[in-house]
Amino acid sequence: MVDFQQIPGDWAVPGSYTEIRDVPDPNALTGMPLRAVLVGQVSGGAAAVNTVYRNVTAATAPGLFGVGTILTQAATAFSNERPDVALDVVGVAPAVGGVAAKGTITFTGTATSAGTGALMIGGERFTFAVASGASASDAAAALLASLNAQAAGSAGTVLKTATGLTATASAGVVTLTAGETGDASGGSLEIRQTTRSADQVPGLTVATAAMSGGAGLPDITPALQALGETWYTDIVLAGHDQANVSAAVLEARRRNNAMVAKDARVWVGYTGSQGQIAALAAQFSTAEELVLIGATAPYWSPWVLAAVCAAQGAQSLNSDPSRQLRGIALNGLSGLGPSAGNQFSPTQRNVLLGAGCTTLSIARDGTVTFERVVTARQTDPTTGVASGVWDVMLPAIGARVRYEWNSYVTANYYNAKLADDGSPLANSPGVVTCRTLKASWVAQCKLWELQGWVDDVATLGPKAVFTRDATDRNRVNSTLPIKPMGSLIVLANLLQMQV
After folding, report:
1. Quick one: DSSP state of residue 149?
2. Do 324 and 394 meet the contact criterion of CB atoms below 8 Å apart?
3. Which residues pair with 320 in a beta bridge?
């Protein structure tokens, strides 16, 4: 019987009467939402702490979070990388009693000829010109003048606008001071002389000391709580300390629970040695919610690294959760990678991948791309058995399949009656049985198989089990096996030379 909602069943006037009703297309995908949130420390601007600011862009970030602050740098990097991906930002107050980090640039010697030197500070290039015979103090003064020059279109200096730092000079030493307190900037914002011979001034020697001495770590828990139940597919952290990464991973894990089903990933950037990066990842050996990317002595800052990688990764995994991210260009990192001597070798990258760390490829022209994006998971959280390299596509496929299936059931069976298999009402409109649910599941699996998300549906589809609950006649319990689509990551060849 057709369930008419507008045409009365006892209507007697001759004519053709047609209801128009929207019916979900069983062969259409719902499309998973995509929205990222950046979490960090509020150290300037008009923004209030523990308040979520929607749709932040490179143009609006400085006014909200202050010129040159870490949050502004990260939000700008994300927005410039993928302006088509919505980004919200929330920050917490700095830790009480926090101390700002400092770094130095020390000049020695005397210039034997005129020249222009250059330094990279926080991923930005700064040049200074000196005349022949210039002393170390003259060179420091020239650099200070360059750093403190008026920034175009800004009320601040070029150094403050680009990096959030301030600079002073004395006796041939330029001292850089972070514009915000906290340990996040200590050792993270890179200061180094460029390796180009054209950037060296004959007779002058430059020694840099990394940012250090910062103290005080804010607790981002209030910012995570301020997110409420808004669905964020990607959480980008401006910091990388273990306590706050743990808080973000726990929040993502809560969101990934079946009763919330608002799956989220956490993106973290880190600067350190191979051992330091692997040691941080080891603290999260069961966390398939975490993507950790690290490098030794790059020119970029870790919060910029996290933002750029998250922007590209979020978009790619939303478009196709099963497509590996290898080869995707990270435009905001181009030219800012570690020098050749500091780049990880293939053997080191293999160790890092096994430790749950994402690796990057850096071309000779400075182009930076994803090599292999993995989660921090190295161990099965249920059995404690090593699970091997856990690609980011695996949880992404699971999240997408769950979302599509839940959406399909809601759209098609939201007010259905439940009958036993073999019931005389089994094929009636508005009635569903375990058999029809299984048929719907297999049909959806075939659709996902055509998208390249899952494989071997012919075998696994029929193995799905739907049973009516023994004590609750309004409930069906099911087991739904799927095989995530694989990726061509390693091609091992045996080349046989016949001589």
Report:
1. S
2. no
3. none
Residue where the block lists tokens 């995707």 = 328
Q: Which of 61, 55, 75 is nearest to 311 (CA)?
A: 75
**Bridge partner list, 360:** 370
Give first-to-last CA distance, the chain, whole Å.
78
Residues 246 and 349 in one domain: yes
Q: Whole domain around residue 116: which residue ranges? A: 102-212
How far, in Å, CA of 72 to CA of 154, rounded?
Answer: 14
Cα 78 from Cα 36, distance rounded (Å): 10
Task: Give the integer Cα–Cα distance in Å for 2 and 430.
Answer: 9
Q: Residue with structure tokens 């700008």?
A: 76
My answer on whether 248 and 355 are in the same domain is: yes
Q: Which of 124, 54, 47 is nearest to 301 (CA)?
A: 124
Count of domains observed in the chain: 3
Q: What whole-number distance in Å separates Cα of residue 28 and Cα of residue 432?
A: 20
Q: Pick from 394, 415, 447: which residue ends a domain?
A: 394
**In the chain, which residues have pLDDT < 50?**
185-186
250: Cα separation from own chain's centroid: 16
Residues 333 and 282 in one domain: yes
pLDDT tens-digit map of 304-332: 999 999 999 999 999 999 999 999 999 99
Distance, in Å, from the CA atom of 412 to the CA atom of 396, rounded to the nearest integer, reads: 24
Whole-prediction pTM value?
0.93
**Is residue 10, in this structure, part of any structural domain at all?**
no
The interaxial angle of helices 434-451 and 393-413, nearest 10 deg, is: 140
* Torsion angle of the four alpha carbons 429, 435, 439, 442, in this order, in degrees rounded to the nearest 10: 150
Answer whether residue 3 is part of any domain: no
**Buried b / exposed e along 314-351 (16+ C-beta atoms within 10 A):** bbbbbebbbbbbeebebbbbbebbbeeeebbeeebbeb
Sequence letter at residue 436: T
